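Quick illustration for those who missed Monday's session on complexes.
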Amino acid sequence: MTTYAEVYAGWKADPEGFWLQQAEAIDWVRKPQKALSQRGAHLYDWFADAQVNTCYNAVDRHVAAGRGEQLAIIHDSPITNSIEKITYAELQQRVALLAGALQARGIEKGDRVIIYMPMIPQALEAMLACARIGAIHSVVFGGFASHELAVRIDDATPKCIIAASCGLEPGRVVKYKPLLDGAIAEATHKPEFCVIYQREQENAPLTPGQDLDWHSFQQGASPADCVPVSGDHPAYILYTSGTTGQPKGVVRPTAGHLVALNWSMKNIYNVDPGDVFWAASDVGWVVGHSYICYGPLVHGNTTIVFEGKPVGTPDASTFWRVISQHNVRSFFTAPTAFRAVKREDPKAEFMAGHDLSCLRAIYLAGERADPDTIEWAQKVTGKPIYDHWWQTETGWTIAGNPAGIEALPVKLGSPTVAMPGYDVQILDEAGHPQAPGTLGAIAVKLPLPPGTLPTLWNAEERFKKSYLNTFPGYYETGDAGMIDEDGYLYIMARTDDVINVAGHRLSTGAMEEVLAGHPDVAECAVIGVADQLKGQMPLGFLCLTKGVNRPHGDIVAECVKRVRDQIGPVAAFKLAVVVDRLPKTRSGKILRATMVKIADNEAFKMPATIDDPAILDEIREALQTLGYAKG
Ligand code: COA
Ligand code: AMP
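Prediction with coenzyme A bound:
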């Protein structure tokens, strides 16, 4: 039997040979001759000389191999009480037709298409249709509001936007059309046309000259063939939160994406073609791109598209019902989802009647997996729970438990070990590698493996500044942590202003920009405080403009509404408090980390550079009014 240590050592001895060998599992139009090429100092591309099509690998090749009748997608929506099953052959037809209709309207290789859709199969079809003709999609999460959509429209400059008429949240229909129209009105760039998929729950009025109906637009179109693209062609752009309000457009390279995801399906998630795989996330996040859409389909699995929540749709039995009903082999979700189930049903009584014998293992990612949650999930399901750590930027696991090679012993609090392709190191501030057990910045020695970001969309300088410049020769992950004597990694905190709310990555900087736009707010700070359910929650401090004497409650309510309207409900921004001053260093830097420690009742060292320590007492008092910092 091959061990993880052997596989990892094999990769390290010959990284390019390792990935060329994994590339054999992909169907190429022109096979890569060369694995890695260098574009500039510390800038790399994988399989750039290859020609390939993502949609062919995700759909057509399975049909060609005689597996057309296998299910590609199971859509399970406890919100609409419906289940739809789509075979690979049906998916091929649907995607080819949509791609043909897009082509007929002038969408070509390299054009950008924004997709703003909820958890319905049409979202995957739209992604695959773009991939089929070499168009670059950018999916925007449905929980973002108009302004966030507008920012992405201006950055990606799409020729077309594909949207649905609505999303469905428990007890609420989220109308997408007004959000879409608001975004188009706000954006400087205007798409040439929009395609709207009308859902039964909301018939959106279409704007003549702008909107086309999903079905009528496809009538009479000829199915499109798969268009070959070069290995380094961007498969998609996915925007993610950074330090500022301007999101980063992570570029996913086509060939590396195919090779890495395909490798991960067996070696990490331990599924074989034909097995059912379920990632309970959303197509708007990287987990949705990699493990609802592309990974399972490229590998020939059946993927579940789930429109629901862990609790409340209708209750805490939903996960267990979906797993047993659809014969799920490997299940992937965020720790927060299990925390929600545990809170509602601590004894897992809702599991009764649901046979989980089909399930082999559960995978957690997206935020820190607290040991309590892992132990609970392990106890109630009797299955191994594997934490794994990765990011939008990488698109697949940096550190995990390679269960398909060898299931390593689980250490609570650790996502286990580095995957082949990643030379993970802990660095001090000067960039020196640290001894085992020492905390530091987590960095990955360059080059990063296939599938990871080669750059940011239209922002190479920002790419270098955000990831490459701090530690020359390394990719800076933005996370801090340590590696123990056995090579197990521990992720402790972000080193920047990114917070993680219910597994959703959010920028406190973006929220501060929105708050600062309130006419009565002179200065503000947003921090992430610990939350039992969501991991973290954003909390805002507001300093008011001199002379403002309106009730603070009104101003706070307006600020909460402002963030919801401009960033979206997903920001979950509900807590804010008015203070006179913010704690700062003598050079004027706001001491956010110290405020977090006070809120979470953690010990902290008084920052040596603090301007006025007395402000911290005012901050503590303000936090206490919100139920934090109670000591
Ligand atoms: N469209 C519109 N609104 C959305 C949305 C979407 N796609 N997704 C979430 N929202 C809204 C929610 O309805 C909620 O609105 P509210 O303030 O009116 O209640 C708000 O955004 C905050 O959402 P969330 O933080 O998800 O909280 P919740 O209370 O709705 O649900 C959990 C809590 C734990 C059940 C939920 O967060 C969850 O399932 N998390 C798993 C996370 C996950 O899969 N992450 C992906 C990374 S792996
Ligand atoms: P995203 O890009 O949305 O996937 O968020 C990536 C960030 O989420 C990482 O940089 C971490 O801060 C955090 N994260 C993801 N997975 C884990 C994990 N398993 N443990 C701890 N933090 C995680």
